[in-house]
């Protein structure tokens, strides 16, 4: 299976890039499955339902969220009607939405997309390790099962991301981090066959502080006075993520390459 994963879409810059470029990118890569993280699409905070719809129309099969899942309240009823938008699985029982979604491709192949959220330097959610273990328990990859399993691990700390990935090495096709908005250079295939990248990076303007206008963001460190309003930077976005090819017979990865298209970052075109 050919899998395109794109990191946190930030503000109008990121949204416009995705809506304008994802259809052609999906075609050029001949991607079977496209997953993107939409938690920062609405002015940097949350995901409005119309933006989720736009991403799905542009070619995303699943949209993931994160710690900003609830910043736009109108997403809560939308999650009940749109299972292709998922939030981290380790929110407490009773939380709206779901933490995984099973995609059925046009050719009948199935893929599972899962999101979990780390706890180091993050909100104290339920255990993402045991939570993911429980969600994955009924699923097997390869012939007779799902062709691929993609896990978006939304977390701050690289140590937690690596610990999670090694814990599920061989059980899933890809563990890719989101949330730091900075693409890591450590994309590789773990010894058990799971593709890994600590962070996919953001789809947004990199002339910024993690997607937000740099002046106001820097002032928060210079002056410890609350109230500096953060707005997304509005220059050209770099579309960031990774492209993974897996073996349908085993679900394991054959290759992982970075994607960085447009904007200020050195380009990597898959
Ligand atoms: Fe984010
Ligand atoms: Fe986040």
TrEMBL record:
Fe cation 2 binds at residues 39, 67, 154, 179. Fe cation 1 binds at residues 8, 39-40, 181. It comes from the Bacteria. InterPro entries: Metallo-depent_PP-like (IPR029052), YmdB-like (IPR005235). SUPFAM superfamilies: Metallo-dependent phosphatases (SSF56300). The active site is at residue 68. Keywords: Metal-binding. GO terms for molecular function: 2',3'-cyclic-nucleotide 3'-phosphodiesterase activity; metal ion binding. Pfam families: YmdB. The keyword S-adenosyl-L-methionine does not apply. PANTHER family: 2',3'-CYCLIC-NUCLEOTIDE 2'-PHOSPHODIESTERASE. This is Metallophosphoesterase.
